[in-house]
Amino acid sequence: MFKVQFQPDGLSTHVPEGMTVLAAAEQVGIVLNSVCGGRGTCGKCLVEVEGEAAPVKACLHVVARDMVVTIPETSRFFEQKILSAGTSGPVGLRPGVEKYFVQPAEPSLDDLRSDSERLLAAVNAQRSDILCNNVTLSALRQLPLICRQNGFSLTAVCRNQEIFAVEAGDTRESLWGLAVDVGTTTVVVSLLNLRDGEIVATSARTNPQVSFGDDVISRIEASRTTENGLQILQKRIIEGLNQLIDELCQKTGVEPDQIYEITVAGNTTMEHLLLGVSVGQIAQAPYIGAFSSAVNVTANNLGLNINPSGNVYVFPGVAAHVGGDTIAVILATRLDEPSEIHLAIDIGTNGELALSNGKHLAACSTAAGPAFEGARIRHGMRGAAGAIERVFIREDVEVATIGDGPPTGICGSGLIDALAELLQAGILDSSGRFLTVEELPDSVSPALRERLCSYDGQAAFILVHPSASKHGQAIVLSQRDVREAQVGKAAISAGLEMLLRHLKVSTMQIDRLYLAGAFGNYIRPQSARRIGLLPDIPLAKIFFVGNAAADGARLALLDITQRRRAEEIARRVDYLELAGTMDFQHLFSEKMFFPEP
Amino acid sequence: MFKVQFQPDGLSTHVPEGMTVLAAAEQVGIVLNSVCGGRGTCGKCLVEVEGEAAPVKACLHVVARDMVVTIPETSRFFEQKILSAGTSGPVGLRPGVEKYFVQPAEPSLDDLRSDSERLLAAVNAQRSDILCNNVTLSALRQLPLICRQNGFSLTAVCRNQEIFAVEAGDTRESLWGLAVDVGTTTVVVSLLNLRDGEIVATSARTNPQVSFGDDVISRIEASRTTENGLQILQKRIIEGLNQLIDELCQKTGVEPDQIYEITVAGNTTMEHLLLGVSVGQIAQAPYIGAFSSAVNVTANNLGLNINPSGNVYVFPGVAAHVGGDTIAVILATRLDEPSEIHLAIDIGTNGELALSNGKHLAACSTAAGPAFEGARIRHGMRGAAGAIERVFIREDVEVATIGDGPPTGICGSGLIDALAELLQAGILDSSGRFLTVEELPDSVSPALRERLCSYDGQAAFILVHPSASKHGQAIVLSQRDVREAQVGKAAISAGLEMLLRHLKVSTMQIDRLYLAGAFGNYIRPQSARRIGLLPDIPLAKIFFVGNAAADGARLALLDITQRRRAEEIARRVDYLELAGTMDFQHLFSEKMFFPEP
Question: ipTM above 0.90?
Fold first, then answer.
């Protein structure tokens, strides 16, 4: 084990030989930029290692000795300004909590007001518009002591017209909030200073519910079939969040009690599970959630370790399959604002699509299937070291892997690349069929011809020969793999077509396409466009917006008018339920075909 | 042990020989009228005992065999209409909760609204004015199951614009609330049907905090000096209330979950302790409570065993010594309404007085001392069996005791009687001094002259000769006892004088005097007036209003506009702090004198 120290954070950890600096940093809660997902390609995670002449990529540099690592601000995850691509204006700073430092007169026989009356009068003397009219019971319980602890010099913490906490002395400097993105796979929590809007730290971790299954459906199933499943799943995510909160507080020195607000964006199932609300009906037609409006609840009620009277704001959604995360994406990409035609796509197991024709908003969700996450693909894998993520076909096949080591399988972005290149080379036809060697056009080289084979009784294409792969076995793309990918791309493009029709817009009219979510950052848009996963629009109109759901949660944290906007969006969005409609079925079959070259 | 059955309740119990029927009834939770406090004098507790020719007084009739007792409605405690004496109009029925039975369309692919949207729309279709806009998290947690348990046929329970509970099927028939009077000594809880305003049952018990001391000061002391004292005192009263709630539910068959509202009136200390708010500052000059506004809190938060989302409304007060109980008394006696001059007095260890001059309200509290509760009096005792409660002086002394047995001591009402009679006989002069035998007027009989004696070195008057008392010892009233009583009466009448002066009213102008509280029912008003404890006004203007604080709590339970009225009263009342003011000190000395005959 070697000791790794991080500067200027002053944090250190011990890690086994061979762990990357990126992983070591995560261990102490420092999240680095990794637009490429730690594949060594984006160069966003540069750090300075004592003894090295030049900065190194944290995702590639492995620990082989004790070391001191200095991390520049520019390499830190989420330190960038909210949404450089999507925003159309500055974010206001109107947090849901306010602090007032007051020094009311001490009680005397001439001034017998109770502590709460005295406090309210002093606070209201500083408010011009709407006056406070209530002190909550939990604040009342603190009040007599806090008043007298510091000679009637105290800070009131207010939400709306209510004082919900009191603190001795002047604590106005400490006003913190958390923005949370609860994904099915990953949970990201950012700590923000509500005084200036600064993101001071971000931590991320795997959603601890994954042990109950990778996807939403398996979580719902677990909630139904496990004893106290719902409670257990809720407990897991709450514990996971508390761990991240604890990390953030330790890293920054912020007191949990001085975090007063949390905003949470998640898909419908994640939000229900977080709140301990039954999800059984989400998995069965006609797919109904218990709620779709925003929910406000105290931190104490959920067991989240911030100020017990802190408020947790859970994003509104539209329907079981278009949840708060999609609303947060629309909020962050400002799809509700422009008079142009904007489209946001978040590709995962479900593809969520939202379209604005400049006036109206519509959204839908399609079961894209797990092909683009590497599942149900013969040699598919998640985007980890050894996964083929780029495929180039010229005279022969060239592949690039995450981490640049010998390939072990293929991930989603590699799959899209491979399909695009095979189409381009004329090895796959637009129906998705591998041509036979006899049918191949003359332009196909002998090296490529040799790669066409039969695998498990199907036509297949050898991407990596056994000698070049890590485990000495061929990595192939089979006919069935192509079909899986076709299903996924058909679902998404049919969903898009439904939205376009609904809002009477053509593909050509799309002014901007926002590609949201982790996956969006990894794919080559030209390949995705080639296979028809993305519509045929100029690349210049495609914007990668990263974790836009987390950005939306931050907007709502910093500015309560953004919450009203999110609720307005949720009401305005036309939801298209695709399951079972004839139009969609028809389009879906049509879109199984790849675009002609 | 004998078995006693109560009809028409159908309840039975086993009691030892010699217990009164009143006590046996209490054992099964039936509270009988006992205006006289179970002394056998008021005749309000008449019951029919099988085998007895005529109705008997339950407080005197002892159990000496198995028996069946039938209790007429007229003998039940609190079954009478709210405040026959004080009310000036009918009570409205506008409870804080409403129920809506709804049968929304079931979800389908054409109607994908979430459960909560569906519910809100169905409820709002039945509301004409202000629409509901929120479903609380606890209701959301019940909603999916409740919807589907009964084919989307359910009842929503609403408060303000919020649905806070849902129940399967049509439960509109069950809508209950509790009115609570938390006294320092006694806790009274009434169960009311919020559909028709009927009081269906009432239970009372000793405040379980009494083991920490009889009075407010000793409770405050205990909260400070006992480890976790505040929490323990709170726990005690909550447990006591839960026991009463349990009794009421068992007696009536009402489900605790279908009780949705509680209103509580108590003095400032009792309300603070109930809510778990520190009371330390109430006992120290300048006597400041943590709050004086009304407090709303969920039953769940306090641990009260009704519907967990039920609301507990705690009455607003004015100052540390004029609390929610006084506001409830003003509410019930409608002191804020009339254009006449009305006075309400509640005599206990503290005497609380509220005066209206038809336009303005003023209130004060005076430390009457415990003399009228039998404490600090040589042979004083509480109003229990054997206590002298009536004294007549003609040629000699005649006394009447509670229970009519041989006397063992003297209680508050007996003390007042004795003082009035001694003044009238010319044995005490208006300064409160016992005349010497030589000074006595000729009208004083030899038998009375013989009763003047010296006791512990002081002048004293023998009320009961040793031979007539239960324990064979004389029961005397000493000069010091007279002084104690003078202090009490001086405090109250000086307080009244301060109020009269403040509102520029004279005694003669008082149109009505409401005597509230248990003690008020026991005293002879002419005696209280004779010694100057009550002002010199015609007896016809004096009204006994019993437990007016409990009545006020019931008003606020049945009609939320009465809560706004209570809050308005609390804001309007001029509070006079008497402690330490020169005027009061001066008046207090003056009022030490008894009125001239």
Answer: no
